[in-house]
Structures are given as structure tokens and as C-alpha cells.
Design goal:
Two copies of one chain form a homodimer. The first copy, chain A, has 591 residues and is an alpha+beta fold. Chain A is built from 14 helices and 31 strands. Chains A, B: One of its GO terms (cellular component) is cytosol.
Chain lengths: 591, 591
């Protein structure tokens, strides 16, 4: 340690939001170079290489073959699949000296597809699984929590190629199993959750989330075993109900009912007779105006009708309207469309038979409804006039929606879509993603092979990613205490940390010999040989750095003993110096 | 090989200019993604990792510590040292979503300097040597010869930090020694040559060139041991000579002397009496107009006077005028400066005492001369009028130059600057570069430490680079024959290539067992198990791929023998199957 390029910090870095990031910086593992862009110092690089090694071993064992693509890629393949535009501002774009367009690749579906197209021509060449451990780029709007959401980061990305759906299912399962082995070996808690394929296209898709309060993903689970990313929850359309007894639409004055709460209060005060039991927010139909921005730049307003006790979840809306971007409508939109009476929008016709919403309306603004708004359900909604609402507005009778939009928020206690009980939510960090791309990329780029019958068929693909640098953030976050990091053995930067304490030369001589002997026995050693540093500072550094096994050579040496300190369990025991190497090896083999 | 992601090509790729590149593509090592940008396929990635391992081992052994910086870096540090502008079009620049400027780093002097500034404060922290093996970017105007001159490439770059010049000399020598070990272990021929520090600044500098006819660098050497890059040859200014006997300037009509050759012919025909012995081109002074573009964008014309038997070497001129860019003057420049009479420019005054060149001239265009143009030397040169020249123009008498420009070409037979004999030239590929940056970066970025006396001193730095991917190009270029690659053992993608030939199941069973046994003995095996491919095709593939040791399991098996084929030496011998593993291990250990 007297020579190691390492300076531990006593102060927390000012820009670190989460404990794991603070400790990685303080313990000298990483250093910030720009927002979301980090340099790896000697300790950090060792951890990174060890995580990569586990990932590589499991990928090789699963039959995937390693290649390595450039990060700097030309525009054309990404143009062909539409991702050049779809990725939006998240894509780092640049031009070379000849003004040709390039990008820093966020993932490599396109070029893997083209590679296989260039090299494979027959079903005999498949199945094939190729992977790389490679530096990726995403121009995140808000880089966050150190390595957790960076702009330059290391990913393992793999791509499978199969001739048919059954093959893809098998390849998918092999990768999924490999991912479980990787996270288990690394000691990272994980939950596989159903995911929406999002802008990547494709069908079957699961994310591996590591449950964590600092996670950016919300997932839900039911007692019966349903687990899904909130974006991926699909509410089944409710069954139609009989509306023959519902009275006709009745427009009422609602002078002081600008909010759902005040409307419900007014209904219960003045219109209690129109409803069995008390009115609730769930009896109202809230019509929310959203602005979609399509990949071609076109802006479209849509109105979604959801029960008044729910909100639009913009992340779920992004999925529902992908690849368009979604935002709430702006002031100007209402100015431009005076037919949309803010706070009083309704899907039904007015007295003259005019509709404010939907295909039949003047502006032709699409009207989509929550899956709970089934035919025959009756609602209180806006009357398309200031301070007026309409009662008894029946779906299918008084309005016909242009479609369904499953964009309302999911709440704890909602029933799981598969009937497995009430949902509960938790937060998680996405550490891996496996999904079936299907034929989207192969079609866009013309990847076909001859099948057994000599027919050209389009190849079907899977895409599998692990955030390698993010895994380190997750490990730092889940493996620390208030004194420092506590790495699992499998990724610790060293197998053992030898700390010599005291001023006696003999101690340093013995400790140096012990370090050599351990190295000779195949254990990587961090040896704290700093003779002018106090034992207290050395122990503080050892706690901060977090090598789980620490051998202290000091006072006990007179009795032929050293102290073996298990940083993880907090136990310290005196062992004979002569047994130290064997005991360290035994502990490393056990963990 | 039946599963390996590999397709060998029979045809040469159309864009491959050199043999090594053609073979790397045909044998399935690399694939071009864009000009100067390549993907690494499984075989290529193995070779890359092995070269990296040798470099890493020697760097670690030399006491350097590995870190890893991002490729994407913010503008500011490069702005502080001037390189943001100096690098010109070679730098890939981009903006993030907030319009902040970034670059893809070509080398990392700035951020290493800042890293050390952030972590070191005392002479006790030094000497320090940090390195990385990392992906670099240069937007080359003409990417060339595959991996030889790429736009995305892998480099090992190291930086040393010392408190004083003696420390820097020691650090420099340690790296220089490590480089010699690396190139020797890899079996790459090399010559260390004196180099000009160029746009990086600094003093002592050597390039490691691998002699090769496809090299882009020309170097010269003398029988007495002088070796230098042509750009780095410094001609000593010639001694003054006595001009007291030289007649005054005589202007002559030279109607048909548009070239140096015709001028010399005219002189020997009509003015032989003015010269002892025949006139030669070396008696004439050629005045060449160059256009410099300075980093701030300013354009400046300069005129350089060189003996008429030489040319301006633009690469040497780039060094002389760095950081300005140099180009020949254009037609327009002459239009703009009518005082420059193209083909008849001279540095002396005309009859009315007016100068066309230099500080005293109307345009003030700088006039610089070759070191051979010493005081008292007499020249035939232009008379600043169409079809007229001047004889007896004496340096120091008839004109005074504004300075020296050592930009004339170096020719075979020129004397070495150190008096060690005549120079001969050869071409080479730059595979490494070691140089003393001195305090340039530390000063620009404020890297100081306290010395032994408690005084703040600016740190002195060295910078050391190896082109890792370029080394593979050099190896492919120097290690092949007309049938394919022939790797040195140390970088071969596999230790041995086992080829099963024939149709007998028994052969494939034995070969598979042999492959397993070799793997068990720690030898990496490429096993050609393709039962439907002819022996001829298998041998052709083996020759193309170039694993130096090939074990053929085929007909000889009946007699308990296999064939051990040494691809490098072309020898084949039958050995007992039972001895095969031991023999392969013996050969691998020997090489």
C-alpha cells in the first residue's frame, strides 16, 4: 500500500447521492471525469475484471462465443431499423471529418445482425449465440448514482440467432439460466420480472431486477407468484355490463367542482339519489389530454379516459404509445383546441349531437379509454362546458372510444392480471434483461437462411444484456456497512488484506514474508506495509476498502499468532502464524 | 470448428491493400465495420487478448499500475493544454444533449495529469507510473491497411510522474527497457529511433519502428549507429565561409531556364567562366513558398531557401513549424503577392535596394534558410523578375535570413549529424513511442508537489505508447506466407490445431479425446471436427488460420500414429499418439 496508487478520502464526495457510490469514491475505486463518466482506479479495475470474468465464464459455458465490436459505428444500420431516430437525445451522435454520420452504440443489435448475415446462410449455421463485453454509450438526461446510471458504461450484450420460434425459446431459456447462475455466483439478489419490450420491439421479455430502495424501476408481485415491471402489467379489459336500466345522460351544474374530490362531494350532497350507495372517485371518468411526439417529429394530441381515482402513469403511457414520446398537453394545446374545455372534457355528444372527442369530433382527436371502461359502464364526466358535468354517460351508448389505452397507474392492492391475488409494489435496479426480439431486426436488415426444405426463412433473434458496471454499483450498494465496503469474495479486489501494525521491523519482515507466501499459494494480497501510518488509520482504510478477509500482523506475533478478521461477519480470531496461509485459503474456498 | 463462429474466405477482400490485412480478413479474425473501424471475431479477439497479456505482464513487472479511463472526455482539459485545437480534424468531437463539448480521446495526457494532481501532493508519492490498455480514437484522413492505421484502435498508454529530471530519465529508461522486452517476447522486429516530439511537446523522444516495406515512417541509419526518424534528423548549421573573393551580384537573362536542370545547363553553357568546375544544382538556391496554418486559424506565408538539389520534405516541415499545419502555397497566394515572382524568387535586394523577401520586404514575408546556407556561401538564385537570375548572391552580404528552417529532404548518402558515416534510409511501422513530455502538461494543468525542502515544484512527466491493435497488423504482416498466417506461439489464437481427416468414426473419437486431453494439460485447442469437409479444405483452413502447431489425426491412426505438422518450419513428422500431448507441450514450452 505504500506504493499502490490509492488515496482514501475521509469526506464524502459532494456529488454522490447513494451510499455505494460514496464508498466507491472514498475508497479509491473510481473517479468521476464528467457526469455519468468514470475512470477506474487500480482497486476498481480489479473488481471490474473479476465481475467480467464471472460473466465471461458463464457465457462461455452456455455456448455463447465472444466477439468484440467497435463503439463507434456508422449511421446506416441504425437508420435501417429506425433506431437512429427512435433513440432520440439518448444517442450520442457525431460526424467524422468527411461529415459522415456516426454514433456511439448504446446496443449492437444491428451490427450483430449484419455480421451473421455476412457469415451464415443455412439452418446448419444455427443456433448461434454471440456476445461481447464492451463499452457502451447513452446520453442519459440525468446520469445518476455513480455507476448506476452512467453515460459510458460496460455491458455484456449477447444475441441469439435461430431458425424458428422453438429454437428462440430454447436459446432464451439457456441465457435466462446463465443469468440466474451469474447473479447467484456474484451474490446479487435478483427477481426476474415480466417486462415490456419497449422501443426494442419483440415479444417475450424479462428484466432481472435487484430489489433496492434506490432502484428506478417499480415492479409488482402477487402472493400467487405474479411478478412484473409496472410498465409490463396488462389490465384485462373488463366485461361488458347491462346498461338498460341506466337513465339517459343528465347534464348538471357543478359550480365548485374543479377537482375530482369536490365533484364527488357535490354529487354526494346534491345527487345522492342518482346512485346506489355513496358516489366515489371511481364513478367518475377523467379525460386526460396527452401530447405524443412520433419518431418522424409529428405531434399528436390524444385524450385518454380513466377512472377518476387513478392517474396516468407516464412510463406506462410511453410503453402504450411507443415509439412515440409522451408528455402532458400544454397550455397552448388547449388554446388551439377550444373544443377541449379543460377540466370539463367529456366523450359524449352535446345536445346538438356534436362530439368533442374521437373520430366523430371536429378536431378528430383520438379518444382512448382505460380497460375498465367497458361497454355498458356508466360514468360521471365533463359536459364540455365550464362548470358543468354529465351523469349517466354510458360507454357504447353515449360514446364509442377509438381504442383502449392501458396507461392508468397500478396501485398496491390491485388484483394481479392472472388472478393470483393482490399486487404489492417494490423498487428494483435493472441488472439484466433477456428478450425475444423475434424477426424485427432480421427483417429490417434482410437476415435470412435456407431452412431444411431449402426455403429462405427470416432468422429470429434474442437479445440479452447485463450491466457489468452497474452490477458493481449494485454490489457496493448491497454490500457495505457504515464503515465501508464489504465485498463478496468472488469480486473482492484482493483475496486477503494483510495489515502490519506497530513499529517493530520484525513485524514488517514477517508480514512481507506472509504476503509473499500467500501470493505463492495463489492468493492475491493487498499488503499494508506503511510503517509511518497508525494502526487506527490502517484499520479504517481496511474497513473502507472492504476486502472481506484481513490478516493483522502485530502484537500477537510475540506469541506466534496473527489475527484473522472477518470483515463481513465482524469476527476476529487469533490463529497461529504457521496456519495463516492454509486458513485463508480454506476460507476463500468456502465462500 | 463445426460450432466455431468462423467462415474462412477464398477471395481476397476488395479493400485490403496489404497481405497481413487480407489474411486477417480471409481467415476470419476481423471484419470491417467502417473505414478504419473493425470488429474482432472469435479468433482475432483471442490474439488481441494474448498481445494485451504480454504488454500487461511487462508493464506490471516494470512497476506501472493499471487504471482505465473513459474514451469520452469533456473538452476542458484538452482546451487547457491547447490540444483541443492543435489536433485539428484528427479529433472526433461531439456534443452531448446539453450542447457540452466532448471528444473521443486520442491519448490521455490531460486526464492522467489531473488524476495525479487530485491524488498526489508530495515527492513521497513519486515516482509514479500509471498505464491503461484502452480504446482510442483518431479521425485519420486516410485510414490504411486494416489495423495498421485505424480510427478506433487499442493502445497501451502509460504516463510517468517524477519530481525532477533525473527521476524522469530513470522512469523513461525503465519503460524503454520494458518496451524492448515486450517486442522481443512478441517476436516483432524493432528499431528504436530518435524521434521528434512533434505536437505533444517535450524533449527526449524515441520511436520503436518495425522495419517494413509498407511502413509509413522513413528512418535513416548510419554505419556508426545513428538511427533516427527522418523528421527528427537535425542538420548542423554549416560553418561560415570567406566570401571576400566573391564578385558582386550579377543579374543574368535566363530565358529558357524554368527548371533547376535547365538553369544549370545554361550556366554551364554560357557562364562556365564564373565558377570553378561545372555548375551543379547544389550551387543554386531554390526559394519555396509555404503556407502555414496556425492553431488559431491564422494563415501565414513563409519562404524557405534550400539548395537546388533538394526538395522541401513536408513532414519535416510540419515538425519545424509545429503546431502550424504546412502546405505548399496556392495559385492565389502568388496573385495576392505580386512581389513573389514564381520560379524567380530571390532573397537579395534589387537595383533600387528593395527586398522581395524577409523583414525588410514590403510584404514582410519571413525568409528562412536551410542550415547549409551559412554566412559567406554564394548562390545562383532568382532575380525577382521573369526569366532572370542572379549570380554571386552571398548569404550575409546580399541578404540576411530571418532564421533557419531545417526542412529539406534527407537523402541516402547524406552524412549522419553525429559524424558516424553516410545515412541510409528504410521504412518502418511505428509500434511504440517513449518520450519525455517534461513539464508541459503539468504546467498547463497545475500539477505540483512539495519537494524534500517543502517547496512546490512542477512535476515532470513521460508518456509511453504501444499500438496494441497495430502490433497485430505488424505480426500478420511479418508472420505469413502465401498460404496464410503463421503466428508466433505467444500470440497464436490456440496452442495447437487438431485436424481429424477421413470418414472413420474412430478417427473423430480419438481426435476428440486427444483434444480433451490437451485441454486438460493446459493447451488451448482448436479442433477441426467437421466430418463432411474434405481433408484438403481442412488443411487449407489450417494454413490460412495459422496456428503454428497442427496435429493431424487420420490414416496413421491404424499404426497408432498422428502427424505433427510444424506450420512455421513446414516440417511434418509421424509421432506416436501416446506421445502427442507431451510433444505438443514440449514444443510450446520451447518457443
Amino acid at each position: 500500500m505504500s506504493k499502490l496508487f490509492l488515496r482514501t478520502l475521509r469526506e464524502d464526495p459532494s456529488d454522490a447521492e447513494v451510499a455505494g457510490h460514496r464508498l466507491l469514491v472514498r475508497a479509491g475505486y473510481i473517479r468521476r471525469e464528467a457526469p455519468g463518466i468514470f475512470a477506474w482506479l487500480p482497486l476498481g479495475l480489479r473488481v471490474l475484471r473479476r465481475v467480467e470474468a464471472v460473466v465471461r465464464e458463464e457465457m462461455d459455458a452456455a455456448g455463447a462465443q465472444e466477439v468484440h465490436f467497435p463503439a463507434l459505428l456508422p449511421r446506416e444500420p441504425y437508420e435501417a431499423t429506425g433506431r437512429w431516430d427512435e433513440y432520440g437525445d439518448d444517442l450520442f451522435k457525431l460526424q467524422d471529418r468527411h461529415a459522415a454520420d456516426y454514433l456511439l452504440a448504446p446496443t449492437h443489435e444491428e451490427v450483430f445482425t449484419l455480421l451473421v448475415k455476412g457469415m451464415c446462410s443455412s439452418y446448419k449455421d444455427l443456433p448461434l449465440n454471440l456476445y461481447q463485453i464492451q463499452t457502451k454509450y447513452r446520453d442519459e438526461a440525468r446520469p445518476r448514482a455513480g455507476l448506476l446510471r452512467g453515460r459510458e458504461f460496460v455491458m455484456k450484450d449477447a444475441y441469439s440467432f435461430d431458425v424458428d420460434d422453438a429454437g428462440l425459446d430454447a436459446s432464451y431459456q439457456i441465457m435466462r439460466d446463465a443469468y440466474e447462475r451469474i447473479f447467484t455466483r456474484l451474490g446479487v439478489p435478483y427477481v426476474p420480472v415480466k417486462a415490456d419490450a419497449g422501443p426494442m420491439g419483440g415479444s417475450k421479455s424479462e428484466e432481472f431486477l435487484s430489489p433496492s430502495p434506490i432502484g428506478e424501476d417499480t415492479f409488482v408481485r402477487s402472493p400467487g407468484g405474479y411478478v412484473a415491471n409496472v410498465e409490463a402489467v396488462r389490465i384485462h379489459p373488463a366485461d361488458p355490463v347491462d346498461a338498460s336500466a341506466v337513465p339517459p345522460v343528465e347534464v348538471i351544474d357543478t359550480p365548485d367542482a374543479a377537482t375530482i374530490e369536490s365533484l364527488v362531494e357535490l354529487l354526494n350532497t346534491s345527487y345522492a339519489d342518482r346512485h346506489e350507495g355513496p358516489w366515489t372517485a371511481a364513478d367518475t371518468l377523467k379525460n386526460v389530454v396527452l401530447a405524443l411526439t412520433h419518431p418522424d417529429g409529428r405531434r399528436e394530441l390524444v385524450v385518454v379516459g380513466i377512472p377518476g381515482d387513478r392517474e396516468v402513469d407516464l412510463k406506462r403511457a410511453e410503453v402504450a404509445f411507443a415509439p412515440a414520446e409522451v408528455a402532458p398537453a400544454e397550455e397552448e394545446d388547449f388554446v388551439r383546441h377550444p373544443g377541449l374545455v379543460r377540466g370539463y372534457i367529456g366523450p359524449q355528444a352535446d345536445e346538438s349531437g356534436m362530439y368533442a372527442l374521437g373520430e366523430r369530433s371536429v378536431d378528430g382527436i383520438r379518444y382512448l379509454v382505460d380497460p375498465r371502461v367497458s361497454a355498458g359502464t356508466a360514468w360521471v364526466t365533463g359536459a364540455n362546458a365550464e362548470r358543468r358535468h354529465a351523469l349517466h354517460v354510458v360507454a357504447g351508448r353515449d360514446f364509442i372510444a377509438d381504442g383502449i389505452a392501458d396507461v392508468a397507474n397500478i396501485r398496491d392492492g390491485d388484483p394481479a392480471p392472472d388472478g393470483s391475488g393482490p399486487l404489492g409494489s417494490a423498487r428494483g435496479i435493472e441488472i439484466g434483461h433477456v428478450f425475444q426480439l423475434g424477426r424485427k431486426y432480421a427483417e429490417a436488415l434482410g437476415l435470412k437462411v435456407l431452412d431444411r426444405d431449402g426455403k429462405q426463412v427470416t432468422v429470429t433473434m434474442g437479445s440479452y444484456g447485463i450491466g457489468v458496471t452497474r452490477l458493481i454499483a449494485v454490489l457496493a450498494e448491497s454490500c457495505h456497512d457504515d464503515r465501508g465496503l464489504v465485498w463478496p469474495d468472488v469480486v473482492a479486489p484482493f483475496g486477503v488484506h494483510v495489515v502490519a501494525t506497530g513499529k517493530d521491523d520484525e513485524i514488517y519482515r514477517v508480514a512481507a514474508d506472509l504476503a509473499d507466501e500467500l501470493e505463492g499459494a495463489g492468493v492475491e494480497v493487498l499488503y499494508d506495509d506503511r510503517s509511518r501510518v497508525s494502526a487506527g488509520v490502517k484499520f479504517k482504510d481496511a474497513e473502507l476498502i472492504g476486502v472481506p478477509h484481513v490478516l493483522v500482523v502485530g502484537r500477537g506475533l510475540a506469541a506466534g499468532e496473527v489475527e484473522l478478521w472477518n470483515r463481513r461477519e465482524g469476527t476476529r480470531e487469533q490463529i497461529a502464524l504457521a496456519d495463516a496461509v492454509a486458513e485463508v485459503r480454506r476460507r476463500l474456498a468456502r465462500d
